Each structure stands twice: as C-alpha cells, then as structure tokens.
C-alpha cells in the first residue's frame, strides 16, 4: 500500500471512530442518562398501570375518579405557577456586571483558546449574515477558531460556505474551518456537535446557531466568567433575544417569553442553586466539563436542557452572563409549532430520562433540585397538555352546563380550581406586562395583554410533541430561518416610496 492510500485509509477510520463516539459515546458510558432507548420497561409498566387504574375507575366510579383527576391536575397547576412566581421573585436584584465591564479584565495573551461551533443544516441563505456576525467578535485571531459544522450531504450549504470563503472579504479564512459530519442517523444537532468537538482545539467551547448575532464582546466576557467562577463552573449562558420583535403578534409574544425566560427564570434558578435547562445557543463551556459528562446526547432533541441537568447531576453548576445574542423570532405559526413541539418533546425526553431512577436522581440533584426539575422541566409541557382539557370543560359549562361538569367540581375542588385559574392567569399576564414595561415598548405591552392566545399555540405544539414522542422520538423537525427577510423587503420598499419625490 502506498503512502497516499495509507493516509486515506487512516483518515477514513479516524472519521468512522469520531462518528461512532459522536453517536454512541454517552450511551456506552452512561446508558441510564441517554434518551436512546426512550422509556424504560419499568416506566412503560407504570404508565400502563396508571392508565388502567384511571380507566377502571372511570368505569366503576366515574364521579370519584374524575374528582381525583381534577384535584391532581389543580395541584400540579398550583405548584408549577408557584415555582415560576418564586423564580421571578428570586430574580429580583440579580444584577450581573454588564459585558463591557468584564470583557477586558483578562489580557489578550492570557485568554484561553476558543472554539466556536456553529451547526447549520440546509441554511445557505443565511450564511453570509452568519459569517458577518461572527466576523464582529472581538477576540484575538490567534486564539480563535470558527467551526462551521455542516452535514456531509448538505451540498448546497457546503458549496455556499466554500464560495463565501473563496471570496473572503472579512478575513475569516484565517480562523474558519468547515467540518463535514458524515451522514448518519440520528440527524440531530447534538450528534453534529459531538463530532465537531473532537476536532476542536479550544479550552473554551462556544455554541452559536446559524441565525445568531452575538454581542461582539461575549467571548471575552464568557472567558472571564469561567476563569473566575471556580473549577465546578461548567458553563455560562448568555441571554437570548430577538432582532425582529415588531414583525407580527407572534414575534412580540416570543420576545416577551424569551425576555422572561432569560432575565427572570434562569437567574431565579441560578440563585436557588437548581438544575438549569440551558438554551440551545450562546452556551460557553469548559472543554474538560463537556468531556467529563459525556458530551451531548444525540438522541435528545433538546440537548441543551438535558446537558444542563446532567452537569448538575455530576457536581457542576451553570452561571448566566449579562450579554445578549440576538436571534430571529419565528414569525410563522406553523413553523413556530414545529420548533416548539421539538422543544416540548425534548423536555419530555429529558424529564423521563431523569425519572428512570427517581431515588438516584434525587440523590444527584438534591430534594429541592429534584422537585424543581419535575415542576419546571416536566411541568412546562405538562401544563400545555392539560390546558385544552380545562378549556373544554369551561366552554361546556358556560354553554350547556351539563350535570357531569358540575359533579366534577364539588365545593372542595371548585374553589381551589377557580382560585388557581383566576389568580394564576392574572399573575401570568401581569408578569408579562411587567416584562414588556422593562423593555419600555408600548407595542409589547399590548401584546402582553393578549398572551392567552399564545397558550393556544403552545397546546397545539405540546400535543404534536406528545405524538412524536411515541412515534418519532429522535426526529429533528427543521426550523426555517430567514422569514424576517420578507418584512425587511416591505420596509425597504416602503422607505423608498416615502422618500421618492
């Protein structure tokens, strides 16, 4: 065999080994923490037994069984709402240093080598904007590599990326590499990240999505936070928000939700020392922490939330930094449901994985962490699944007033349920209005008052997620980006018309 053939063969086997590790590494090291096998046999038996008990109860004692179910659902609602209010209260006073205050506290020659991983799939139309945003990052070029992680059979995106690099007007070619992930199932972002991180050279590993526009100083601020946060600080999460909140009502709702999530819920969880379900982008990791916990789970479609909980299980903690990455808010309802159903499916996967061994999980997370994991990670999609049932019962009562609805709500159940419904909805709307007020945007405030309409979309997404969890648990539903371009074109055209004599 000549030298060229030997090198080619060596590269082929190295590629296959990386792919195997990317796909099965976590499953081999910690199978009880991988979503690969879905629900365990014990969990299936528990679900079947619970369903059989409810069905039998409805057949033999429908009124009593119905009351018990309504009471349990009311208790879940109350607990989830209470936890979210607790997080909002705990976030008050959370005032981290702005990114500009910490970005230059580490000299350039002492900064860690940073690897920025940007997975993209079938998104050639947004590559130029992506690379333009990455070119704005203020970080020493000799300590930075940008890895564009593409599927090996995504010919159009690969060709576009190569074309942009060939016509490199932004000086990216000196630090940007294209990583082609060999085509293989599952086709998920975490598998691509697992593959690329094996080729990354950095001690600081950063994840951005293809539509992201990070603050130019974010990498520096993250490096400082990790350097001063102690060895058990595995990751810092930057805030996410949107550059197109005014596009339509849906983008306004989405902006309000993200603002609350990243400025109130996550800081509240950090203050409580609770497990943190990470956002899917603008995560800045210590490389050794990523490797210590087995990387991302390629069979979990919200690899970020799963990884956040796994860090907590293994003794690490997560911080947040005052730096914003702007993304594109999904402006199309159908596309939004696709994206949200994947998130809900992944939350359900993560919840079920952590409930495989409840006692072991409680020991790993602590009792408070275990309770918060159930109410925050499990409660988020669960409430979206329960909402239509109660909306239907409410509609029936106000239109037909059937006797069976009256029977389901004796006084001892009716008054707590009514209190939960009225007070809970008022507080939720009020919290969104306060969030809009913080942004000082009247149009967002108006959208906040209409936020119950957002709940309807959430429920559609939750039921879609539940069906996919059963029939297609690892299917990664692609979110289309670049939908804000039509609005930009309209605005540009309007501006031209206005300025035309």
From TrEMBL:
The keyword Nucleotide-binding does not apply. Residues 204-403 form the Glycosyltransferase 2-like domain. Signal peptide: none annotated. The keyword Nuclease does not apply. Pfam families: Glyco_trans_2_3. One of its GO terms (molecular function) is glycosyltransferase activity. CDD domains: CESA_like_2. Keywords: Glycosyltransferase, Membrane, Transferase, Transmembrane, Transmembrane helix. The chain crosses the membrane at residues 46-64, 70-89, 370-393, 413-433, 454-476. This is Unannotated protein. It comes from freshwater metagenome.
